[in-house]
Amino acid sequence: MSTSATGVMPPAHPFDDDKLKEECGVFGVVGVANAASIVALGLHALQHRGQEAGGIVTHDPEQGFNSARRFGLVRDNFTDEATLAMIPGPIGIGHVRYSTAGSKGATQIRDVQPFFGEFSMGGAAIAHNGNITNAMALRRELIERGSIFQSSSDSECIIHLMARSMGRSIPDRMEEALRKVEGAFSVVAMTRTKLIGCRDPLGVRPLVLGQLGDGWVLASETCALDIINATFIREIEPGEMVVITDKGVQSHHPFRPAKSRFCIFEHVYFSRPDSILGGRSVYETRENIGRELAKENPIEADIVCPVPDSGTPAAIGYSLESGIPYAMGIIRNQYMGRTFIEPTESIRNMGVRLKLNVNRALIKGKRVILVDDSVVRGTTSRKIKEMILDAGAAEVHFRIASPPTAWPCFYGVDTPQREKLLAATMSEEEMRDHLGVDSLKFISLDGLYRAVGEAKGRDANAPKYCDACFSGEYPVEPADMLEQGFQMKTAAE
Q1: Is 263 a catalytic residue?
Q2: What is the DSSP track for 119-132?
Q3: Is residue 478 within 8 Å of residue 410, measured between CB atoms?
Q4: Burial tier of 342 (Cβ tally within 10 Å: 0-12, 13-18, 19+)
Q5: The pTM is what?
Q6: Among the listed residues 289, 291, 157, 270, the one whose alpha carbon sits nearest the alpha carbon of residue 220
Q7: Which candidate among 161, 173, 261, 444 keeps its CA 20 to 30 Å from the CA of 393?
Q8: Is 211 buried (19+), middle (13-18) or exposed (0-12) by CB count in 10 A?
Q9: What residue ranges in 106-205 does DSSP mark as E strands?
């Protein structure tokens, strides 16, 4: 197996540091010519799920397994013919990464997926979206039994568990390995001839199946099917494993049945607005969130402005429901990416202004409603408020398209420690004072559920989604974090 890697990880921009980030996106294809090119296009469509690094593994009947792993964006690393020629073959998988487990910042190329293992029945590569909540315990056990880890990633545990399995095939070994894993996982894997996809029993992270001519595709989101003109077939079910060969798709259900707990924040922010989740348009859901937000938290104002780009659909919904005109009061610099290098302290102090600029002629003298997807630390919200006031706004009102984020996520999202989450230490009114705005209101958890199609709101006894970041109710016990002293929600909270 040949491997190549160049470059260094780009620094994060201050604006990005105050947003929740998905850990990664996965993509796989089988039965097509030049699989690497298709995988690169799919990863490009999934770039929003991870910008630190990306990797592709393919298999060619003559050259065997080949891989390329790079720091940075797909467009900068996997678009030239020379790189793609190094990873030939009709089957391939890929991964884009934002680190939540292992080395924060992805400083080591060995942490970049897909991971590869050579087994008695042949090689296999695996790419994982999610977070293994018992990875520390598994890692200790595996090391004690002689496993030698090459990365700091929780995902590597799956490869080692497969190596120790006595299963007679790669899919059998993968099933056995994943039964020992806790937490959230959507996995895409490959052998020389098989493409494999699997979701955890709760289906926390998305995974979809598509068809491209005579070939098949697995991807984190439907937008990755659109870019290659593949046909969306269906979502992989929670707890389902599919094994795809030249004979078609075989479906297995290796886990005990469980009620689905899909991540509700995928609807709010993570997924691209042009994707389909659970048969629902993400864009339309976010517009519905804005409508619910307007119903629950009306205010007299002159214009509704999104905090671009993630607040845009909700702002449109708020405007439509309230009748207050929608306006682009903040303009995003589309060419200001994570790779911007801030060479001096004076430029660093510009912070958010490097990425966002206020449309002064529109804002001056107006009562402004700003719609954003979430408030995490609150640092960006304060800076945006200052920019709006500097532009001459008469009033600034924040409306947030998610409930207060008061608990960290342990299922594949980069969340600050709980004490650094604004909503964990302050009431809504205290947050309003801290941000220095005229009003601050969040959509309720019931309102969010209504926006995603649950007419009666959230069933407290059997919630349909994972909403732990809002409710503190974790559907899978975060074993590693409890070992490190994390305190679960008490009855008083």
Answers
A1: no
A2: ETTEEEEEEEEEEE
A3: yes
A4: middle
A5: 0.91
A6: 270
A7: 444
A8: middle
A9: 115-119, 122-132, 183-190, 195-199
Domain boundary among the residues 260, 277, 299 is at: 260
Q: Work out how many domains the chain is built from and give that number.
A: 2
Whether 126 and 182 share a structural domain = yes
162 by DSSP, 3-state: which?
A: helix
The structure tokens listed for 241 are 């494993």
The single-letter DSSP state of residue 159 is: H
Per-residue pLDDT of the chain (493 residues), as tens digits, is: 434 434 444 444 444 456 665 569 999 999 999 999 999 999 999 999 999 999 999 999 999 999 999 999 999 999 999 999 999 999 999 999 986 544 444 458 999 999 999 999 999 999 999 999 999 999 999 999 999 999 989 999 999 999 999 999 999 999 999 999 999 999 999 999 999 999 999 999 999 999 999 999 999 999 999 999 999 999 999 999 999 998 899 999 999 999 999 999 999 999 999 999 999 999 999 999 999 999 999 999 999 999 998 899 999 999 999 999 999 999 988 765 543 444 444 544 456 677 789 999 999 999 999 999 999 999 989 999 999 999 999 999 999 999 999 999 999 888 888 999 999 999 999 999 999 999 999 999 999 999 999 999 999 999 999 999 999 999 999 999 999 999 999 877 7
Give the other-Cβ count within 10 Å of 461's Cβ. 5
Which residues 6+ apart lie within 8 Å of 187 measured at CB? 26, 126, 127, 128, 129, 158, 174, 178, 196, 197, 198, 199
Residue 152: closest CA among 114, 99, 83, 214? 99
DSSP SS3 for 216: strand
Look up residue 212 and give its amino acid. Answer: L
Whole-Å CA distances, 290 to 215, 307, 328, 442, 451 = 39, 13, 16, 11, 9
Distances (CA, A) of 227 to 37, 230, 326: 12, 8, 30
Q: What is 401-454 written as a DSSP string?
A: SS----S---SSEE---GGGSHHHH--HHHHHHHHT-SEEEE--HHHHHHHTT-
- The active-site residue out of 24, 157, 223, 409 is 24
Give the closest residue to 172 by CA, choosing from 272, 252, 244, 83. Answer: 252
Buried b (16+ CB within 10 A) or exposed e, 230-248: bebeebbebbbbbbbbeee
| Beta-carbon count within 10 A of 75 CB | 12
Same domain, 120 and 73: yes
The domain of 367 spans: 287-332+352-454
Task: Say if CB 11 and CB 354 are below 8 A apart.
Answer: no
User: What CATH number does the domain containing 21 carry?
Assistant: 3.60.20.10
